[in-house]
Amino acid sequence: MTEPVHGTWEPEPATRWEDAFLAGNGRHGALVYGDPRDDRVIVTHHTLVRPHHRPGDTDPPRLADRLRALQDALLAGDLRAAETFTDGRPLRWIQPFHPAFQTHVRADTPHGGPDALDTSGTRREVDFTTGVVTATARAATAPARTSRVLVSRADDVLVQYVTEPGPRVRVELDHRLSGAPPGLIAAHGVATAHGETVLTLGVRYPDSTLGYTGVTLVVPDSGRTTLTDRGIRVEGARRLLLLTRVRRHDGPYDPAEETAALRALAGEDGPSAAYVRLLDRHTALHRAAYRRVGLDLAADPAERALPGSALLARPAAPALLERLFAAGRYHLLSSSGMLPPRLCGLWTGDWDTAWAGGFTTDANLALQTASAVAADLPEVTEAHRALIRRQFADWRDNARAVFGARGIVAPAHTDGESGHAYHFDREYPLHLWTAAADWLLLPLLEADEAAGRRDPWLTARLLELSDFYEDFLTRTGPDGRLAVVPSYSPENRPDGGSWGAVNATMDLAAARHALTAAADRAPATRAGRLRALADRLPPYRVNADGALAEWAWPGLGDRYDHRHLSHLYPVWPLDAITPYDTPDLARAAARALELRGSENDSAHGHLHQGLIAARLGDAVRAGDALRRVLDGDYFHASLMSAHYPKRDVYNADAAHALPALLVEALVRSTPGRLVLLPAPPPGLCARGRLTGVRTRFGARIDLAWAPGEYRCVLRPDRDATVELRAPGEVRRLALRAGVEQVLAGYAVDRTVQS
Fold this sequence. Notes:
By secondary structure, the chain is of the alpha+beta class.
């Protein structure tokens, strides 16, 4: 039996940057076209966002002195009062993420000459296990040309190694990419000495002291190097090594230190030895992370061998799901490091990146990183933590400026630099949304549960979040219960009211969860106070349609045709509503999911529906959500996804969230429960093997299944007693650290010492 393919390939170069194969280390990114005639690599870096030009652009609105009046108006029945709760500014977008430049290794050979490359023999591929993108092409009378690109996780450098580049090639750095503003100031530098060349490209933003500099060290094994107008011409080299880094800076920048660091990485033993050394150092980290979890759906070997574009034309093929699962893990890992993935991961070839290529915290970021704990990618969780760490002071500013409260309020959008809540307007009053901090801290809490620890830093953040709710939750409704006022349900509005409302279900769920999570880690006296506050929040409401209502407030009706499912936050990602513990509310949540439309067919909406369906044990609906994405032409040849059908708008939501949906459909865990095969999509996952899944009670799981049977191996790293829910049985399961336990069919089969 063949193994799943851990990579993808195409028989021709990319002609669009969206189809370029991807590499990254969570800081630098690379989009590789694989064209032997003009071997282009677009270089990106997480820090590259356009600067703001006006002081105060990122300040949160100072509205705290008007909050009481707004609350009075909303509670008195003026359900449009929040429309004027702003400081009068127009909508201010976060700053756009953009590419740095592209490197060219361009054949300097007359077209049709004896040394011209035969591009009909080109093959480009990406190996997910190593993170290496390779392009190979034949030449009419010369050895095959091969280009290999990786972005080192060990040395934070973009590496391109070309063998048999051709008799003459030009090497250049070029900032002229789509959408680049005309006012960019670019300066090229070339310094050649001792058989190597340093190319520099310094770029300054218009009307700003901010800029960035790219430095590329070019090391040929032999031949002659001469200068050109934008770079160099290399003649007679058999091997060529390019090492590239980008640095964003304020004011002048001297690349001497960077140049010395690249020279140290290249060493003195030539490009071939340097490449092997860099590859080995990188692979030791990348391969170990990528290989922790795998999915095998017993796909047809012939389909597994197809190029990605051909496989995408077979949406019902198990081989496609295998490859998209593998690609999703690869891209998620590759885009996570100093920051988690942006809306576009770590990659763009256009300066006008959709939605500024930032981080949207009211659904998208959570969906993209949803598999991080279960699919054992702590690199993603730590990147997520890094985003929070660098913005936490800004979250405090938001709480004070908007709500006059202690504690923290996270923004709905951020470019990775400012954490202030300044992106809002009348139809998207995102500055009123108070649930973001709970959602952003949740993955760190789940990582703590999986590791069996209580990180003091996270404990402090949870307690600080509870400070906010203690100050904010002071108003009550007619029933005497606390009211979350103002309240917002991203990115929808109710019938009978405006966008800023009262008691959005998501806000209620986040407040209740934040208070109880903090209480679990607080001293006893404070813990009791926090739990008492949580108990005063109103219950969720079931509307006249039998559905969980999006607003638990009289007079606010539901608008069902919307891409967001904010009101189902208690189902996913929380565990507050489950079919096992709260069956009545679970039925109401299932009805809400049934009634929900797909609005504009955004990929994140479909996969969000699928994740909720999996939590509710609805295999059919989880499968339908998955099929809508597979059938809708959402994936580029790179296996990176789009936001809309027909590959419209480059966006990482589907690519990164799809593995999470598959894991949730096959294995679900909480600190006290294990659910096996809760919602395997019919016709898509009839049989297979999922290995390495990490549970929140401290065990790793290998699960194999086929029609009518399953076999599960648990490897716990600590003692635990959990409820097992498997096909045909429900019982308590006692686990002991270091003792492997095997479940087969519907019973424990054997126990062996690991």
